[in-house]
Amino acid sequence: MNAGADRLDFAPPKTPGRWRALILxxxxxxxxxxxxxxxxxxxxxxxxLSADAELWSAVPAEAAPKLVEPPPEPDTPPPPPQPVPQPAxxxxxxxxxxxxxxxxxxxxxxxxKQRLKKEQARLEELKQEKLRQKLEKxxxxxxxxxRLDKIKQDKLKQEQLKQEQLQQEKLKQDKLKQEKLKxxQDKLKQEKLKxxQDKLKxxQAAKAQQDALDKKKAAxxxxxxxxxxxxxxxxxxxxxxASGSANATGNAMKSSGPxxxxxxxxxxxxxxxxxxxEDIQGNPTTEIEVRAAPDGTIVGRKITKSSGVKEWDDAVxxxxxxxEVLPRDIDGSMxxxxxxxxxxxD
Length: 346
Hints:
single chain; 346 residues; mainly alpha; three-stranded antiparallel β-sheet; 5 helices
């Protein structure tokens, strides 16, 4: 905010009628000066008039004789006898002179007194008017000051409200910034964790692949060793008079497992007992492990690999249960455990 603009906003407004009040004050002071000069001149003229007034009289009169004390009376002899009084003559009428007219100086003094009274009244009125104007000006100044104070308070309140709004906006922005920063940190953490997990998975996959390769290589090596051992055993068994066929792969003097045709005989025994009329897609395979007693009686069965079609699996289980007894091999032996494979479209 500009400091110059603030000073102009809070500066007191110009007083209305300033030039008019100044002119009126000059006129009043001029009149007062004229009255003072005139009153000084009047007093001077009055002294001259009073001096002249002592020389004038309303009626010409002679001065009274000077008072002279009579000399003391000498001792007089007894008075002679008084003569007989004569009748007094009639008094002559006394003519009363007219009342003297007041001098002109008293009229002028009275007029001057009246004028002074009017002047004093006018000055008092001017004084009262000036006092009234002063009180009015003080009242207006007080009102103006109150108005300016109110404007200042309102402006201060607006500034405080604006500062509070700015503070709230700043807090909101800071909160959003913190939330955004936290979200970015969480995202980076998640990405870092994912990268670590991917790296761990890749390492595990690489390790598993390497283990598989190692196992495969070990199996191949073992297979090669087993094949070489089988060859050595076959060669040794042939030299000893083994009973197997020319393409037999065993190393014993006599085969211990079922014959090649034994599996077909078992399926031929169980197949007629399978009751399955539903139409299914494909040709799923069901593998079942069957355990049998030495006399061929079925003592247990278990699905080792389901075909995915429950109805077909159940039909095969029912057929095995219905068969109850399995045939012996051509040499009269009976394997204790058999793995049978059934397909609906075979």
